[in-house]
Amino acid sequence: MQIPSFSTESIARSCSRRPWLTIGVWFFIILLSLGFIFLFLGDALTSDVTFTNNPESERANDILEERMDEGYWATEIVIVRSQTLTVDDQAFQARVQELFGEIAALGSEVIDVAVNYYITGDESLVSAERHTTIMPLVMAGSYENALENIGQVNDIVHKYGDADSFEALITGDASVGEDWEEAAQADLEKAELFGIPIALVILLVVFGTITAAVVPVLIGIIAIVTAVGAVAVIGQGYELSIFVVNMIAAMGFALGIDYSLFIVSRYREERFRGREKTDAIVIAAATANRTVFFSGIAVVLALLGMVIVPLTIFQSIAAGAILVVIAAVAATLTLLPAVLSLMGERINSLRVPYVGRRFGRQEAQSGGFWERIARIVMRRPWVSLILAAGLLICAIVPVYQFNLGASGISSMPDNLESKKGFLILEEDFSFGMLTPAQIVIDGDIGSASVQDGVDNLTTIIESDPSFYGSPTLAINSSLDLAKLSAPVMGDPNNDQAMNAVRKLRSEYIPQAFSGVDAEVLVTGATAANIDYIDVTRDYLPIVFVFVLGLSFILLTVFFHSIVVPIKAILMNILSVGATYGLVVLVFQIGFGADLLGFQALDKFEAWVPIFLFCVLFGLSMDYHVFLLSRIRERYDQTGNNTESVAFGLRSTGSIITGAAIIMVAVFSSFAAGDLVMFQQMGFGLAVAILLDATIVRSILVPSAMQLLGTRNWYLPRALRWLPEVRLRE
């Protein structure tokens, strides 16, 4: 049956007939969004990443907050080192006491606890060669408070650094967090700074006119501003990550430009065929606009996969991306027809010499590069299919070494002060002093059985070289809760620390507390990272099934076929699998990492696979829907499968290639950053889009469609009640 209610054609006709009213409405939306951004955005975002499924580390933290008044406090360590003096020299002591005095003078609103060697006489605060001492600090308030106040401590430490043969550094929860956020923000800003000019240059080459190239960029900017304004409001009631804005910027430019590119190209194609302005807008709306609408739904469904992961970072990123997709689709379906109505032939003004001359003509006329590719592929479809699929399967092979993990401070750029402090701390002490495993013992602490359990566990930990020194015990006033702090060696995210805490949970605690009436839980930075990795690993297959299932339903309705969605899903799985394999090959195995300027790491950042799958599946479906909609449109007109496939590839080849090059360029600029997680993300996105626009769209799709023939559009009789969407000329 035909859908009578929704019509992108009627929306475009209405907006093109009232262009100034439509533009005025969008101008009001932009002003409102800017007002929301100015008033609310600062309070809407947080750097915290929290679980929503209450894993062991969260339960332990909650118990500490409720019954020991010990929530998660940010701990810092100030390091003072001299190449010539030791802690026993008067000048060394004077320097430390002076520095310590200024830090303590910040008051209890900034520093909750501060100690040094000259106060406590604790030899564990002095390095073996006695040229280095550390001053542990506990920042006041929450982690967010610590981030706000750490700048004051940094200023004091910097004043005493690199002077009079002394070196002073600071590292810890807040200082590492601040450096990490600044490095991440710099990487993302670099990507955005290079992404927009690159996109504009590519659009100039594709369209050949400055005016036509600027319009998609403006649509992208409008979508971004609208989505960020919505985030500013939503963030007043729900916790959203600070990186949601960067996600909105990346997706907004990618999709805003893509959608506008599709529609402007179709409009220009119809104008070249001799259509009047209004007719060209209406036909573009009945075809390209409808494709954009359903493509936007496909992208949203793919992004919903991240919402089900019980981590606020995924939910925040998904929320931002979904909002900007909705904004991009809305602007493309309403504002763009109004702009085209006002501009008319001026969309082709300010022509750039020598480029874009055949744009529009190649879609309307037969022949050309993309049609030749399609016919070569379809002439030997089995050979083309086997070679293309075989190449992608070879790229998938390294996935067998797939190792989820979390990059810690050891993977951060060496020029960051917190990283320098970490290296000194790791060399002379243990970074685990800052991030110990916190073992929470909930039971009658005064009982002999619990005390024996604590003693047994302490003995076991002291014999394990993965832990640093002896654990320290703290007991609450009610004697019904104890906390055993056991520092782990090195970076809390490295394999040694992870394995130590996993063994603590699975072996040491059951062994020490066997038969004891007490609940023993482990929290701390390493334990939280383990829970985070486990959550992403457990939810990865769930997200796959969820996204693939929803996409299958949507594509079945859109194309009125079960063959097309099955084929599309299989091809996208091949593309995503090949992407995973290449990320593992470069970053985990290290093949070509130095040549490409990447940091090799023995792990795949745990959030990246789910992120890549959802974003890539959405973006690849974007291209797939656009290509197949042109094929189906021609097939409905002619009934000729071979001719329809050739037409589809010819009419979309340059557009998809241009859009893909823009995305590859934008995502590659993310990979050019310093943080390995963004290198993996940017490289993965760029590679996947490249594979999708070349091997998948140019070889796999035409060869498979040629082999299947009319079976491409098969729909079982039992499903023929589904609504039928038709694109028309």
Can you tell me about this structure?
The protein is 65% helix and 8% strand. It has 729 residues and is of the alpha+beta class. The chain has 4 domains: 1-46 and 208-365, Multidrug efflux transporter AcrB transmembrane domain (Multidrug efflux transporter AcrB transmembrane fold), CATH 1.20.1640.10; 74-178, Alpha-Beta Plaits (2-Layer Sandwich); 369-414 and 533-729, Multidrug efflux transporter AcrB transmembrane fold, CATH 1.20.1640; 436-523, Ribosomal protein S10 (Alpha-Beta Plaits, 2-Layer Sandwich), CATH 3.30.70.600. The chain has a 4-stranded antiparallel sheet, with helices on both faces. A 4-stranded antiparallel sheet has the order 9-10-8-11, with helices on both faces. Strands 1-6 form a two-stranded parallel ribbon. It starts with 7 loop residues before the first helix and ends in a 21-residue tail after the last helix.
